[in-house]
Amino acid sequence: MLKFKHIIFSLALILVLASSSFSASKVMLYSSMQEDQLVAIKHGFEAKYPDITMDYYFAGTGRVITKIATEHQAGQVAADVIWVGDPADYISFKREGILEKYSSPEAKYIDAKFIDPDGYYTGARMMNMGIGYNSAIVEPSEAPQSWLDLLDPKWEGQIVMTDPSSAGTTKYFVAALLANPEYGEDYFKKLRANGCELESGTTATHNQVAASAYHVGIMLDYVSHNLMAQGSPIGFTYLKKDLISIFSPIGLVKGSPNNENGKLLYDFILSKEGQEILIANNLLSVRNDIKQDGVDVEGIAKSAMNVDLQSLANNSDKILNTFDNIFKK
Q: Check: CATH 3.30.420.40 for 128-244+306-327?
């Protein structure tokens, strides 16, 4: 009899464990952010919600968008939340029915210019594209101070940038300059003639400058600051004119597998707690109630170039084709 009861108890225990494993609560984030930042968000979120596991798919924007498009065509995007660099991509996501409307209670602390008027996405971080340089080779006073400075013959063969087909932030940069009459196609032709080379990802571009393979690069502030914090010889210049400032949104996937958990993650990322995690990892917050020491957000806003997101979204393929015809032929 005791043996029989033991068997029954063991079977019940197995069923309970099996049931708990099948009902494990999860949330999935697709993102092109640097992995260190994703891990920091994961740790913070799971500390607040210990019953939810945050998984993520991390890759360059091009690969993330391809994955989203493939899954959408198959009938369901496996992510609950999407977080890529280029805000213009969210116009396409919205148009294609990938996103679900969601108004986060944290949105009241975020300027309306960072929020989709129709409620499909909200800016969750700020990034700036400027000029980075190897500080072991280039003195700060000698570093380029403008996009036009990169055309100086003294930088010939010593310039690197990320291929815009692999990084949404660089695609945004290319689109902004192509649309501006002061730059246009002629600027990129001159940049190519001055020996600018391409790398296939944002991380690779920054690492190449840190490794002295190139003296200067078209780079992101937060990736540069991450490398500085690790002791790499990197400097970064916030341009005083035509700085490319990018707000990177998050969006909730329509009919996502873990929709309620997706909302919790969305809210956490936008919360003061979540944004302070980003600040601790060298990113700029979009919230208006957080102090960011040493960062002149107002100055950045004044020097930032205006970019037509709708035009960028409508002409994404044309922008990449124009760039490829200059750099890859």
A: no
